[in-house]
Write the structure tokens for this entry.
Amino acid sequence: MPQMSGLARPTGFRAFVGLQRPLVAKGKLKMIFVRNAFVLVPALLLAGTAAFAQQAPKNILPPAVTQTTPAPAPLPAPALPPADAAALAEIAPLAPTWSLADAGKLLGIVRTVAKRGLIVADYEPDALQAAITGGEGVALNDVATRVFTRLATDLRDGRTPRAARVQWLIVDSDAVTLPIDAALTKALASHDIDGALTALEPKHPDYAALKAELAKTPASDAAKIGLLRVNLERWRWMPQMLGDKYVLANVPEYMVRVNTYGRNIAAYRVIVGKKDTATPQLSAKAVGIVVHPPWILPQSIIRQEVGPLIARNPAAARARGYVWTGSGKTLSVVQKPGPTAALGQLKIDMPNGEAIFLHDTPNKTLFANNPRAYSHGCLRTDRAYELGILLSLIQSGERLDDVTVRERIADDLVTLIRAGKTEKYPFKESIPVHIGYFTMATTGGKALHSFPDLYGRDAPVLAAFARPRVEPAAVAPVVAPAPVG
């Protein structure tokens, strides 16, 4: 078997509560212990006296005349007054202490939050102003903490309910890596409220470009403001860290780019899913390359296209490389590798529950078209050989500008393809692949461009912004229907 150089071998605010709860409970508990002492100590003395009285001289009378004395009834346990019993119950967590200065900074951020693409009214500016007017204390602590938590959550995770995030299957890990209680602790300790909130926002250059564009867009341009708001929101649905080296596809743009350490180093045209077999948004790990990959057809394609062909003209189906077992609902179909196979001669192995991946295609003339929505959900990739070589080089740890290494990897890949066998080679290091959906984005540079909303997915997000905000905990996750491969 030829070897391929460059390829691998097989939440709550505990800090504040912990500081403040003893200060509240300690006095009441001390009173209870003192009161109990006055009740329990006499009771213990009485019990000791009774025990001493039971140590009588030995009974020497005959059994017939032995007299028995009934045992004294046990003393009832002293009952605590209702107020004291309630004081012993668990005390509800208290909100952190807000100074008037810090609360004022938060109010200033809320009043300008539209510059971040959010809705001012969602964050109770009037209630926060009233609490500030009332002075420091429990009311201010409660309102300011609630507002900070709500705003921080939306800046980190997005405001849109999951039901409006159509086929958005990307898992955002920011709730684990960027906890809100830690952000609040830092904000109040440093008195840098804006800095703590900004730290929760996406760090991708496109997010910064969208915010800058929103800041200079006139309020009269409602359509553009809506477009900017939608795409700022989508970045919040993404994990803040995409990876030091990653692949990012943008479905409405029909493009995929390779990024290393903050630089776009390559871009490739892609063919995406048709409207009725839309490409979902997901993240996966590229773990290797498969040359001459077979295609296991999903049941939807078997039902709609290949099954009828097999029933009508089995010879034509075999000529296209299809082999099958079973019949009817048990029919299973695989397309063998070959020069006319749908997956071409190479695919990026990126296991995921939707069976979506980047792959070669024999129909390369379609890349000249725009739009390019012809697939069953997967991303047919232009210059797939080059992409495979580049990803092999990235994961190998070799210098990207080393021409000798690049040519060696290219020669090895060509040798593998010419061998004509299905081979799978794992990467030494996996490479994150993110498939996003942005109708306004940069194209590898700094300038923003807008793209047609291929699947009509902007409208549900805009509609969600037009409705009152829904607390994230009250929104049940919606599982999108699995697309075909």
Observations:
- The radius of gyration is 34 Å.
- The CA atoms of residues 54 and 69 lie 11 Å apart.
- The chain is about 40% helix and 15% strand.
- Residues 1-71, 77-90, 474-485 have pLDDT under 50 and may be disordered.
